[in-house]
Amino acid sequence: MKKSLKMIGAVALLLAIALSLAIGCSQQKPATDAAKSPESLAGDAVQSEGKAGGEQPYLTIRGDGVKRESQYTLEDLKSMEDSLTGACYSTVNNWPVKKFFVGRGVLVDQLLQKAGIKEEAQTIVFKAADGYKIALTREQLEGKRFSYPALLQGSTQGAQEVPAILAWEYREDTGDLSEAVPGKLRLLLGQQGLHDVVTAAYVKGVIAVEVLTAAPGQWEAVQARPAPGPVKRGMSIELSHPEQDQVRIYYTTNGSMPDVYDSMVYNPSATYFQPELNKPLPVDGLVTIKAMAVGFGKRDSPVATFEYEVR
Ligand SMILES: Nc1nc2c(c(=O)[nH]1)N[C@H]1C(S)=C(S)[C@@H](COP(=O)(O)O)O[C@H]1N2
Ligand SMILES: [Mo]
Is the separation of the CB atoms in 216 and 298 below 8 Å? Predict the structure, then answer.
C-alpha cells in the first residue's frame, strides 16, 4: 500500500518535470491542440468568437499574387489541423527591447499555398483593422527565421528555426506556450540574426493578407560622413540612411561583406528613441567600412564601401 503511493508520487513528479521541460522557449514542441485558456485574461480578446451557427469572415487572403481570394472565419482557421503550430519567438523592437513571445496559430505559408500563391508573387502585406500594415518581400517571409533562446545573453546558442504564423493565442514576456491567451490574429515570425528588429512586424489584429506581384523596391545605399579619403586623427565616421528608422545598417570594418547574421549593427535604436546608441565609428589607421541597409518590404540595399586613412 505504502509502496504504491510512493510509486504514484514518483510518476507524478516525473510528469511534472516532463511538462515543465516541454514548455520552455528552448524546448519547443509542435502544438496542434488548441489550449483552452480563459478568454478574460486577454488584453484584446476576440469579441465575436464562438457565435453559434457561423461567424463573420475574419481573415481575407487576396491580391494579384494569389489564384483565388480566400476568406476564413476563426473557426475555419482553427480547423486547419495540419497547418497549426505553437512556438516561442525571440524578438527585438525599435528601442531596442529584447523579449520573448509565445503564440499558437496557423502557418502563413499554408494559407498562401491554399490561396494558390503564384510564382510571380513578390510582396506580402499584412493589414490590421486599425490601418497598421507591414510589407514583407517574399524572401523575407519565406527565408529561414529563428528563435534565439539566449537572445538576452547576445548568443545564438540553441537557435531554432520558427515559422511565420497568424496566432490567435499569444503572450509576450514568457517562453511558456501554456500561458498564451486568446487575442485578435497577430503575425508572429522569427529573426534573421540577433539584431533583427521584428516586433514592428508583429501586426496586431490582422484582417487581410495581400499578395502582390509588384516588385518590391530596394533600399537606398548607406551614406557616410565625412566623405571617404584621408581623415584627421581622432575623427569618427557617421553612417546614415535616408530612411534610417525603417532600416538597420549592418556593417563590417575588415573588408568582408556585411550580412545579417554576423555583422554589427550601426543603429540599434530608432532615432526617436535612443539616438545616442547609434555611435560614429572611430578610425584608426587604414579602415574599410562596408555597409548595407536591411528593412522590411524592400530588398537589401547595395553594399556601400567607404575607405579611410588617418593622416
Ligand atoms: N495593428 C497594429 N499592430 C502593431 C502596431 C500598431 O500600431 N498597430 N505596432 C507595432 C509595433 S511598432 C510594435 S513595437 C508592437 C508593439 O506590440 P505591443 O503593444 O504588444 O507591445 O506591435 C506592432 N504591431
Ligand atoms: Mo515598435
Answer: yes
